[in-house]
Amino acid sequence: MELLQQIKDFLIPELEAIRQEQSAVRERLNAIDLHLVDQSRRIDATNQRIDKVHADLLVRIDATNQRIDKVHADLLVRIDATNQRIDKVHADLLVRIDATNQRIDKVHADLLARIDRVQRGLDITFRRKSPSHGPAV
User: Fold this and answer.
1) What is the pLDDT of residues 35-71, one digit of tens each?
2) What is the tens place of the pLDDT at every residue in 74-126?
3) Distance between CA atoms of residues 67 and 52, nearest Å
4) Quick one: which of 11, 27, 75, 88 is 20 to 30 A from 44 by CA?
5) Rg (CA), the chain
6) d(CA 114, CA 116)
7) Cα(77)–Cα(74) distance, integer angstroms
8) Contacts of 49 (CB under 8 A, 6+ apart)
9) Residue 51 pLDDT
10) Separation CA 28–CA 33 (nearest Å)
11) Is 132 helix (H, G, I), strand (E, B) or coil?
12) In angstroms, rounded to a whole number, what is the distance separating the alpha carbons of residues 65 and 44?
């Protein structure tokens, strides 16, 4: 029995020391577990905020895209209207240019006719005054 007592005297303090160390490790593990739970809650809250911001940004992007589409459609209508006005002004200018060209042609023909009359008048006058044609009548 003495051997058994010696073994008990040797092992019991060692087991007690191991139990104390194990208790300290458990306390530390509990503290780490609480810290991890807290970090998990924070991560969940951050993820929820990210999801909310993401959803908000999607709504805003969709609204912006709709505004862009509306502006695009409005600009297309305005561009078409401007093109029609340009075409109308172009057609009007062509008509006016043609009318101006006709007036120029008419003035040109009129001036040519006047020049011809003046030239004939001068020819007649010079013939009358010319000594080679005899005395002027």
Assistant:
1) 999 999 999 999 999 999 999 999 999 999 999 999 9
2) 999 999 999 999 999 999 999 999 999 999 999 999 999 999 999 998 888 88
3) 23
4) 27
5) 56
6) 5
7) 5
8) none
9) 98
10) 8
11) helix
12) 31
| 137 Cβ contact partners less than 8 Å away, ≥ 6 residues apart | 128
Q: Of 106, 9, 92, 27, which Cα lies nearest the Cα of 114?
A: 106
> Are 122 and 114 spatial neighbours (Cβ–Cβ below 8 Å)?
no
Cβ distance 128 to 137 under 8 Å? yes
Report the pLDDT value the prediction gives residue 137, as an integer from 0 to 100.
46
Residue ranges of the alpha helices (H) in the chain? Answer: 2-129
What is residue 134's predicted lDDT score, i.e. its pLDDT? 54
Q: How many CA atoms lie within 13 A of 88 on its CB side?
A: 6
How many CA within 13 A on the CB side of residue 49? 6
Residue entry with tokens 């589409």:
69
Annotate 24-57 with b (16+ C-beta within 10 A) or e (fewer).
eeeeeeeeeeeeeeeeeeeeeeeeeeeeeeeeee
* Dihedral (CA of 59, 62, 68, 72) sign: negative
- Compute the distance between CA of residue 51 and CA of residue 48 in angstroms, rounded to an integer: 5
- Token look-up 């008048």 returns 121
